[in-house]
Structures are given as C-alpha cells and as structure tokens.
Amino acid sequence: MSESAIADFVTSFIPDTATHAEPVRGRVVMSKRRIVLAAESEQVTIPLGGVFDVQHETAPGDLAAFFDDTVTIAYERDGDRRVAVVEGAGDTVERFVILVFKGLLNGSKVYAKHPARRGGRVTDQPFESGGLFVSPGTVELRGDVAAELDVSTVTHFERVERELRGSTRSMLSVRHMGDTGPVTTELALDSGRKMNLLGRFIRLRYTQLKQELADVELTSDEIEALVAIYSSGPDANLATVLGVDASRLTMFLNDLIDKDLVRDDDGTYLTSMGRAAVSEHIEDVNM
C-alpha cells in the first residue's frame, strides 16, 4: 500500500465469505482509500468507495464457532458484491470501526434542517448545506448549518420523505436531546449508499450505549440527579436543585461516578452513558 496507513493490526478474518469457510490469521491495514486484508498466502483489497455496509455485532450462528464478535464489511468491487468478516473484539477493533466510518462519511456534503422540531413543534428552519463529520460519540455538521448531535442522547431515528430543492428526497430524521430539551434534526446526503452508512453508524453507537446502560440499575433518586445535572449544567448548586443536604448529594454523585454515568472534572458532567440514561428517562421525570 503506497499511501499512509491509519490502522494496522493483526487479527483473524474471513477475507471473502463466498470463497472462505474458515478464518485465517493476518494483518488488517487501512488507509484513507482502502482496507487490505493480508494473510500469508493471499491479499484482499477493499476499496472504501465500494463499501455499502458495516456492522459490528455478536457473531451470527454460523460464525460463532470462530468469533465472539465480528466486524462485517460489505462492499462492491468489479461489479460483484462481496463480504469480509473481521474478528471484532477489543479496543483496537472498536477504534478500527470508527476509522472506517470516518473514512466513509467525513467531509460528505449534507443538507440539514436543524432543528426540524423542538419537542413536538415543527419549526420554520430551512434546509442548509454543510459538511458531515463523525466521531465515536457525535455526528457533527459544519458549514452553513453548524450543529453537533450527541449520539448518546438519540431517542429515535427513522427514514422519512421530505421536499428538498424541488424534489422529494429520502432522509434521516433523528430525535435527540438538545441544550434545552428534545429536538429533531433531518439529514439528507447526495449518496444513497452514504445515507445507509450514516444510519448504520447512528444505530451502531446507539445500540452499544443502550446495551451498556441495560446493565446499570438506577434508583428514581439517581435518575432525578442525572436529569438535574443535565438541565442545570456543571456549575449548578445541585444540593439546592435536588433539595438534599451536602452529604446526601455526595453519596449520589459517588454512586453515579462508580457507575460511569458522571465525572467530576472542575464541575459535574455527564458521561456518554449518563447522557444516554437521561435521554431514556427524562420524559418519565417530567410527567
């Protein structure tokens, strides 16, 4: 590979599910243009421009004998659709998945209506163009429309049809928590392939956070404390907001820190898991 590598690690993989029944051991090397799966006897090149789906999940039944988790990369090359499967466990592979999505999506032209809704109210905000950029926890819009969608606060997303520049377009409608409450952002990309990949990215990050959150037990008082931190900001007097004394507040915060929901860093901040917990429970608190 002549271009610089941005990922390079050794793992097991199936370079092509149509021709390989079992995994081989080798190197996975990624540049800004391609992914190369290099085993001792062969090398498979996956052009990023041909990738149309990426999944990171528990290995399906027929692969469970070889892998616990898998990264499945579906792509088109020379007119044929192919699938490669990479062993998916570990921090290195998680970083690799994010790099793949960055390589596929970053810099893409996006048309966005932000916000399209505030709560249940439709706004008169027009669609504006900009650039799309993803990171482990965010979808960022830069340009005429500037916004950052925190994936940990997404509560719902779906495909919708909207009028854009004189024609009906398929786009992604994402409901998430803004600074002052729930908002909906509508996004359209020029490429249907990239639209599918953006939906996959949001679903992947959303699902991972929800799975982690499912293992965390929260009391009603802890939920109320998380919502108060979200609503009041890092510098608020939380004891006053919650109506508890300092010792009781300290106990709340220590428990939430132990559960990786809150961090204390010159102020009290929610972690991505904490924001996911708020987005899941805030409507219950406000009822």
Can you characterise this structure?
This protein has helices at 91-105, 192-214, 220-232, 238-242, 246-258, 272-286, and strands spanning 7-14, 24-30, 34-39, 43-47, 51-58, 69-77, 80-87, 108-118, 121-122, 128-135, 138-143, 147-150, 156-164, 167-177, 182-189, 262-264, 268-270. It has three domains: 7-105, Pleckstrin-homology domain (PH domain)/Phosphotyrosine-binding domain (PTB) (PH-domain like), CATH 2.30.29.30; 108-214, Pleckstrin-homology domain (PH domain)/Phosphotyrosine-binding domain (PTB) (PH-domain like, Roll), CATH 2.30.29.30; 220-286, Arc Repressor Mutant, subunit A (Orthogonal Bundle), CATH 1.10.10. The chain is α+β, with helices and mostly antiparallel strands and 287 residues long. Helix 3 crosses helix 6. A hairpin with a 2-residue loop joins strand 8 and strand 9 (121-122). The strands form three sheets. Strands 8, 9, 10, 11, 12, 13, 14 and 15 form an eight-stranded antiparallel β-sheet that branches. Strands 4-3-2-1-7-6-5 form a seven-stranded antiparallel β-sheet.
CATH architecture descriptor of the largest domain = Roll
Order of helices and strands: EEEEEEEHEEEEEEEEHHHHEEH
CATH H-level superfamily title of the largest domain:
Pleckstrin-homology domain (PH domain)/Phosphotyrosine-binding domain (PTB)
Number of strands: 17
Low-pLDDT segments? none
Q: In CATH, what is the class of the largest domain?
A: Mainly Beta
Give the DSSP E fraction (strand runs of 2 or more residues): 35-45%
